C-alpha cells in the first residue's frame, strides 16, 4: 500500500500516521526525518544535503527526490510506504510520480486532511512543546499533568513563536497556494480521498480506515 498523507500544519498528519503504522506494516517517511537519517548514516546524498542545511539553505527538490528514491528502495518499503508532507508543489508531485513508476511503487492513495480554520487555530495556539525532549502537548486536548512542565522529562514547555493566529494565516495561504495544484493533479487521477480532520481523533481515523479498506 503506497500512501501520501497531506494537509496543513496542525491537521493531524503525525497523529494519523502513527495510527496507520500501528495497523499496517509500512514505514512512515517524512522528509525531515529522512534528511536527518541520511546525514546520520553519512550517505553521499545525505552529506550533499548537509552542505545546504549548514548554509541555511533549502535542500533542492532534485536532491530531496533522489533521497526519497533511495529511501523507497530499502527493505522496509517492500510492502509499501506512507509519505508525510511531500510533495508540496506540482513539480515535486510530477518528479515523485516519475521515480515511483520507475521503481514500480506508484502512489495508490492520497489522504487529504481538511480542517476548518477555527479548529486549526485552536489546535495551533494551544500547542506546547518541550525544547528538551520534543514532546508535544495541548492545553485543552492533551495537557501536561503539571501546567507548563513536560510529563516526559520535567523541563519547561514553550509555545512556538509562530504558533499564532496571524502566522497560521500566513502559513495556510502559502500551503494552499503551493499544494492546491498538487492536489488537483492527484485528484484528476482519482487518487485523493478528503478526510474531515476537524472531528474527534477516533472518528478521523475511522474515516481513514474506510479509505484504506477500499
> Which CATH architecture?
3-Layer(aba) Sandwich
Number of domains: 1
Span between termini: 11 Å
Q: From the 3D structure, determine the CATH topology.
A: Rossmann fold
Radius of gyration: 18 Å
Quick one: overall form?
globular
Number of strands: 8
CATH class category label: Alpha Beta
What is the tally of helical segments? 8
List the secondary-structure elements in sequence, H or E.
EHEHHHEHEHEEEHEH
Look at the structure and give the mean pLDDT. Answer: 91
Largest sheet properties = 5 strands, parallel
Query: Regions with pLDDT < 50 over 5+ consecutive residues?
Result: none
**CATH H-level superfamily:** P-loop containing nucleotide triphosphate hydrolases
Class computed from helices, strands and strand pairing: alpha/beta
Explain the overall architecture.
The chain has about 210 residues and is α/β, with parallel strands linked by helices. The chain has one domain (about 1-115, about 175-214): Rossmann fold, CATH 3.40.50. Helices cover about 50% and strands about 15% of the residues. The chain contains eight helices and eight strands. It has helices spanning about 15-25, 30-40, 45-55, 60-70, 90-100, 115-125, 165-190, 200-214; strands spanning about 1-5, 30, 80-85, 110-115, 125-130, 135-140, 155-160, 190-195. The protein has a five-stranded parallel β-sheet with strand order 2-3-1-4-8. Strands 6-5-7 form a three-stranded antiparallel β-sheet. A hairpin with a 5-residue loop joins strand 5 and strand 6. The longest helix has 24 residues, at about 165-190. It is globular, with a radius of gyration of 18 Å. About 25% of the residues are buried. The model has no long low-confidence stretch (mean pLDDT about 90).
Amino acid at each position: 500500500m503506497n500512501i501520501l498523507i497531506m494537509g496543513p500544519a496542525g491537521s493531524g498528519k503525525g497523529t494519523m500516521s502513527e495510527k496507520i503504522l500501528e495497523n499496517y506494516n509500512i514505514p512512515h517517511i517524512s522528509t525531515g526525518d529522512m534528511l536527518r537519517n541520511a546525514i546520520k548514516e553519512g550517505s553521499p546524498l545525505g552529506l550533499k544535503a548537509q552542505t545546504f542545511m549548514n548554509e541555511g539553505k533549502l535542500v533542492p527538490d532534485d536532491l530531496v527526490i533522489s533521497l526519497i528514491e533511495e529511501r523507497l528502495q530499502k527493505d522496509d518499503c517492500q510492502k509499501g510506504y506512507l509519505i508525510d508532507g511531500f510533495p508540496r508543489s506540482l513539480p515535486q508531485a510530477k518528479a515523485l510520480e516519475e521515480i515511483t513508476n520507475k521503481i514500480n511503487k506508484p502512489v495508490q492513495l492520497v489522504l487529504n486532511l481538511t480542517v476548518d480554520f477555527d479548529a486549526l487555530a485552536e489546535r495551533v495556539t494551544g500547542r506546547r512543546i518541550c525544547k528538551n525532549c520534543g514532546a508535544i502537548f495541548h492545553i485543552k486536548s492533551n495537557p501536561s499533568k503539571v501546567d507548563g512542565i513536560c510529563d516526559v522529562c520535567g523541563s519547561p514547555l514553550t509555545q512556538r513563536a509562530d504558533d499564532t493566529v496571524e502566522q497560521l494565516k500566513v502559513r495556510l495561504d502559502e500551503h494552499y497556494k503551493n499544494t492546491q495544484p498538487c492536489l488537483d493533479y492527484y485528484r484528476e487521477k482519482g487518487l485523493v480521498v478528503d478526510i474531515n480532520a476537524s472531528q474527534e481523533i477516533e472518528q478521523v481515523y475511522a474515516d481513514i480506515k474506510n479509505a484504506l479498506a477500499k
